[in-house]
Amino acid sequence: MIEKMTRYAFILLQGDREGFIDALAATGVMDIRRSAKDLDERAAGVLERISSNKKRAAEIRAGKDGRLEELHAAVREARSVYEATLPWGEYDRERLAATGLDVHFHCVKEKQFSADWALQIPLQEVRRADGCVWFVTLGTQDDSLPGLLPAPALGLAEAKSAWERAQAQESEYAAQLEEAKSTLPDLDRSIREDEILLGRLMAGKAGQEGAEGTVVLYEAFAPASEDERLAVQFDALPCLWLRGEAEESDNPPIKLKNNRFARLFEPLTGMYGMPVYGEFDPTPVLAPFFLLFFALCMGDAGYGLVLILFGIAVNKGWVKIEMFKNIGTLISVLGCATFVVGLVLGTAFGVNLYRLEGTPAWMKSLMISDDIKIAGYSAQMILALGIGVVHICLAMVIKAVLYTKRFSIKAAVSAWGWVILVLGAIGIAAAASLGAPETATRIAIIAVGAVSALAIFIFNKPGRNPLVNVGAGLWDSYQMATGLLGDVLSYIRLYALGLAGGMLGGAFNELGTMVLGDSPTWHWLPFVVILLFGHVLNLLMSCLGAFVHPLRLTFVEYFKNAGYEGKGIKYNPVK
User: Which of 201, 358, 502, 570 is surrounded by the fewest CB atoms within 10 Å?
Assistant: First the structure.
């Protein structure tokens, strides 16, 4: 849910501005409108320092930076020069050049080399190794022999010395970079302090000056639950302050307040955008459906166990990967759901538990295996489509309620009409399939059709020309008819991804079994390697798909049908 906010207004003298910002920051809950206009040199310097420190911290965490890459390249180049010089050994280049003769360096395959070449041109063999022959020719004439190479740029000792220097520089800098990792806590703390300072500087600039610059007006927001505590503190400040209940027109910042479970999924809501003050917080609905969607896309109880253990390892600090920081609990929760759903779907590490002889009969009776068919279609596919229908219907109801709350019932007539039509049609179809009387079914169809038609085509916008309403209703009907069908079919991906992951895991199992054979000896080693590599690869791909596609179903299908805007401003108190 969206926490209720209070709007504050402060009027103070210009000279009290800096101390006032400090006092508001001390409360820890006041969100002042920031302003980037007319920032002074101090703020610009803080911003530049934040950017520089963040870049440096990222480089240290990655274990590399531009300078280290340059040193890597220098070592590779020096090694290449040394290896190219090594076959020629050490020689006096200056003395050789003083003879005035052209020196040509060659390297050919040993089978290609002919001793008769020495009868045609002055030639000296230098080295034979690894099936190759290195030789030089002397003369001022053109050299037409194969394998011509450029002359070594350095002598052997010089090339070796240059390579060793490059290695020493690389090792020294790598050690410095490794030592720099110990400075990360201080660097992160400096970044946080500078961000807080920049926020305060921007908040200080947000005040509106009045009375020829002698007074300043500030606007700020805080959770309504803090009203009593803040009133005591503000009475002690040298300013006039007023407060009132925040309204949607004030566009107050959004602070979400959810239970422990839903709070795990608030970052997903933030990825799309915070709700505006008059909207519903989508997180309580997003949380259980995303959890279910993720589990269906994974569809493997074995992988669920792996995720549970991985999440625990992240929380315990045994796995230190920056992208998973602070989400270990979420990973374990997703793993628990995947484990349960995987058992229901009858798959564990690519093994079809429904076909497995050792699976108890009572467990099989609870499974919705892909082997089970409903009217010739996979039960899992029907389940995925059914979940999609429920998800979209819930979105339509939420949209109708939201529009009624925000814009009055007049603006929500059409939305309610579609809710009545869709839910009524589903209800009538279900009742008819269960043997409801034909007369009652006919009356229900007429009632639902009449009420929804009036809402969609006649009263979709009360007070407007009825002919315009009819035209708008027809256009809305076209969009809904095509859109709803496509939206529902999108949920087949829940079935398809789970099926694909299970089939791929099963394929790796079969491949490993084929390698193992009937009389395994040393075949155990490739068997284990195939299973580990295959299932790790399948797990990683499944996790990626199970994260992206549920997000798409939420952000596109659900949010669109729920009328969710997501244009709110995140609550960010001055610190």
Answer: 358
Angle at 484 between CA 479 and CA 489, to 5 degrees: 135
Residue with tokens 């280049």: 93
Q: What's the DSSP call for residue 87?
A: G
Say whether pLDDT at 213 is over 70.
no
Regarding whether 343 and 274 lie in a shared domain, the answer is yes
- Does the reported pTM lie above 0.85? no
What whole-number distance in Å separates Cα of residue 453 and Cα of residue 466?
13
523-550 pLDDT per residue, tens? 888 899 999 999 999 999 999 999 999 9
Q: With respect to residue 12, please indicate whether it lies within any of the assigned structural domains.
A: yes
**C-alpha span between 560 and 570 (Å, rounded):** 21
Looking up residue 217, the CATH number of its domain turns out to be: 3.30.70.240
Range from 9-18, 188-197, 385-394 that averages highest in pLDDT? 385-394
Give the phi and the psi of residue 41 in degrees, each rounded to 5. -65, -30
Q: Which domain holds residue 148?
A: 68-163
Sequence letter at residue 364: K
Tokens of 331: 């990973």
**Number of domains observed in the structure of the chain:** 4
Question: Using one digit for the tens of pLDDT, what is the confidence trace for 73-91?
Answer: 999 999 999 988 888 888 7
